[in-house]
Design brief:
The protein is built from three helices and eight strands, in the order E-H-E-H-E-H-E-E-E-E-E.
């Protein structure tokens, strides 16, 4: 896709450094934009993102299931749960379970693979040896 901008987790503006909202606005204005949201915590999501998207040329939201449980969704939102896969605009997206709320994403764009972890706060896994899980 030509002129594609990807935004991962647009948090509440009080959490961002002062210039970040303006930088994001400049980058998305007039662009085709994918907005990814890993979960609904305010350090990763604000519903202001829905109004911000109106500054783009075209936009699609790819949102964790927990966001859709708390907020009204725009018609072009794709809701993801762990294990879900979606292909759009020559991009493939796979959602993975998070050890916190929501999901992590793997985005496949041509030869570029982007992993966005969201919040993986608990790194222990039952399949790992006890000494690794300390």
């Amino acid at each position: 896709m030509k002129d594609l901008t990807i935004v991962f987790n647009y948090p509440d503006e009080q959490i961002m450094p002062n210039k970040c909202p303006q930088i994001v606005l400049e980058e998305i204005r007039g662009q085709n934009t994918l907005f990814f949201v890993s979960h609904s915590h305010s350090d990763h999501f604000t519903k202001k993102i829905f109004a911000l998207a109106k500054q783009t040329k075209e936009y699609i939201f790819i949102l964790s299931y927990d966001v859709s449980q708390r907020y009204s969704m725009p018609s072009n939102a794709i809701i993801m749960r762990p294990g879900d896969r979606v292909s759009l605009l020559k991009i493939s997206v796979e959602a993975f379970d998070s050890s916190d709320l929501g999901v992590a994403y793997m985005v496949y764009l041509n030869n570029l693979h982007i992993f966005h972890s969201g919040d993986l706060s608990d790194w222990s896994r039952k399949e790992l040896p006890p000494e690794v899980n300390k």
